[in-house]
Specification:
Layout lengths: L7 H9 L5 H12 L1 H6 L2 H8 L3 H10 L5 H20 L13 H17 L4 H13 L2 E6 L4 H13 L4 E3 L17 E7 L5 H12 L3 E6 L12 E4 L7 H22 L1 H20 L2
Parallel strand pairs: 1-2, 1-3, 3-4, 4-5
Helix pairs in contact: 2-5, 4-5, 7-11, 8-11, 9-11, 11-12
Length: 285
């Protein structure tokens, strides 16, 4: 598989994860977090690093449908090689090693990550999320710590096109009351490592009350996956908060654009209304 899409072992783990034993889940998580360890070491060495037996590593491979460790390792090596090749074109230094300005190198790297994620988003799931948000009577959005800016932007963008969106603020909503009336509610959860307990508790309560839940996260097996009706894992080539933001904002822009296309008249009227309100506030009309 090429370097612009998520490798098969990622997808196989996501599909099988819920049915794995505790020990096999430990192996799966390690593979997702440290694929280089599997690419460079024997099954015995990987097992020693994890504190499990070599036979458990082999059993993990068989459970995912591989003939053995060698077949999995070959796939992981291909994946690691593709990532390495990409990063050879991306140097985090001030030197113009490849003829490109530094800012262009960074932005091209973001483009690669956005492309990688876009190819792994299901069109059916995307359309489902657009429908949930378009038809919602109320939308609650939660993103804490470094995902707060993402949640804030999405709230503003949805309000600007006529969606009744509300941003969860832990400092103001300590005793958040979930509505009980028969309305269509959607909860959008931004949940990235280290997975805020507060957001997960909100998701659990929303699930109990029959709300639709859209999860935006960094892994198909992240804790929010247990609550989300529609899950969007954001894949990126190296795990860092800085790399996550451009991908997520690009996806959010696509989501808001999808709603705008679905409801063009409502979008036009609300943008006009918001602009008139802004002008009145600016010029005290």
């Amino acid at each position: 598989m090429g370097g612009t899409s998520v490798n098969e072992f990622y997808k196989k783990i996501e599909l099988a994860y819920d049915d794995l034993s505790k020990g096999l889940k430990k192996v799966a998580t390690y593979l997702l977090e440290e694929p280089t360890a599997f690419a460079a070491n024997t099954a015995k060495k990987v097992g020693e690093s994890l504190g499990v037996s070599e036979s458990m590593i082999t059993r993990f491979c068989l459970t995912l449908g591989y003939s053995g460790y060698s077949e999995l390792q070959k796939e992981v090596r291909d994946y690691v090689f593709n990532q390495k090749r990409v990063f050879e074109d991306y140097s985090l230094s001030s030197e113009d090693d490849n003829g490109r300005p530094f800012h262009e190198q960074v932005m091209l790297h973001d483009q690669f990550n956005i492309q990688s994620t876009s190819k792994n988003i299901s069109e059916a799931q995307f359309n489902e999320a657009v429908t949930y948000l378009t038809n919602a009577d109320e939308v609650l959005i939660s993103g804490l710590r470094y995902t707060f800016s993402m949640a804030h932007w999405l709230t503003y963008a949805l309000l600007s096109i006529g969606i009744n969106a509300r941003l969860y603020r832990p400092d103001l909503d300590a005793h958040l009351e979930f509505a009980t009336e028969q309305k269509k509610h959607v909860f959008v959860a931004f949940s990235f490592h280290a997975y805020s307990i507060e957001t997960l508790m909100l998701a659990k309560e929303a699930k109990k009350r029959g709300w639709k839940i859209i999860g935006i996260t960094d892994s198909g097996i992240a804790p929010i996956s247990g609550y989300a009706d529609t899950l969007f894992p954001v894949y990126f080539s190296k795990g860092s908060n800085a790399e996550t933001a451009p991908i997520v904002f690009s996806f959010l822009n696509a989501l808001v654009s999808g709603i705008s296309i679905k409801e063009p008249e409502r979008t036009r009227k609300n943008k006009q209304r918001m602009e008139e309100k802004r002008l009145k506030q600016t010029f005290k009309l």
